[in-house]
Design brief:
GMP Synthetase, Chain A, domain 3; alpha+beta; 158 residues; 3 strands; globular
Length: 158
C-alpha cells in the first residue's frame, strides 16, 4: 500500500448487513437479468482502500444511496466520496470501482464513475480521467497501477 498516509486516522463505520436477493420464481432464459442499486453496491462494497486495510464501505467512500441505475438505458452511475478533500488516491479508487464493474456487469452497461460534488479539490479533473476510455485503458496498461488495482480488488479477510 501507500507510505505517508494522506488521512492517517480515517473514520471507520460498521458494514451493513448483506441482503440476499430473491431469485425469481419463474426463470425465463430469454429475459435479461435486471440490475439495481443493491446489486451494484454488493459488487463494490468490499473494494479495499488503497491506503488503509478497510473497505470502501467501511470508510463511507461508497454507499448504496449514491448509486443510480437506469435499466432502460443500461446506464449505471456510481458517485463516491473521498475521505478527505485532497485525497491523492481518488483516481485510483474510481479506477478500482470501474474495473470491478467492468468485470462484473454485462457488457451492455455503460458505467459512469463520479466524485461527489464538492468533496474533492480536483473533482472535475478526477471525473474526466475516470470517464475517458483512453485514459482508463492507458492506466490499466501501467503494471504498477494495475498491481494496486488488483490488490484493492482482492478479498478482505478479517
Amino acid at each position: 500500500m501507500v507510505v505517508g498516509l494522506i488521512n492517517a486516522n480515517p473514520v471507520v463505520h460498521e458494514k451493513k448487513e448483506r441482503r440476499i436477493r430473491n431469485a425469481p420464481e419463474i426463470i425465463d432464459e430469454k429475459a435479461e437479468e435486471t440490475i439495481d442499486q443493491q446489486e451494484i453496491f454488493e459488487h463494490i462494497r468490499d473494494i479495499k482502500d488503497p491506503e488503509h486495510p478497510y473497505s470502501l464501505e467501511e470508510l463511507k467512500v461508497v454507499s448504496e444511496d449514491l448509486i443510480e441505475v437506469d435499466e432502460r438505458r443500461c446506464h449505471v452511475r456510481v458517485t463516491f466520496t473521498p475521505t478527505v478533500e485532497h485525497c491523492s488516491m481518488a483516481t485510483v479508487i474510481g479506477l478500482c470501482i470501474r474495473v470491478k464493474l467492468m468485470r462484473s456487469l454485462p457488457s451492455r452497461y455503460k458505467v459512469d464513475i463520479r466524485v461527489a460534488p464538492g468533496t474533492h479539490s480536483t473533482e472535475a479533473s478526477v471525473n474526466k480521467q475516470l470517464n475517458d476510455k483512453e485514459r482508463v485503458a492507458a492506466a490499466l496498461e501501467n503494471p504498477s497501477l494495475l498491481e494496486i488495482v488488483e490488490e484493492c480488488l482482492s478479498p478482505i479477510y478479517y
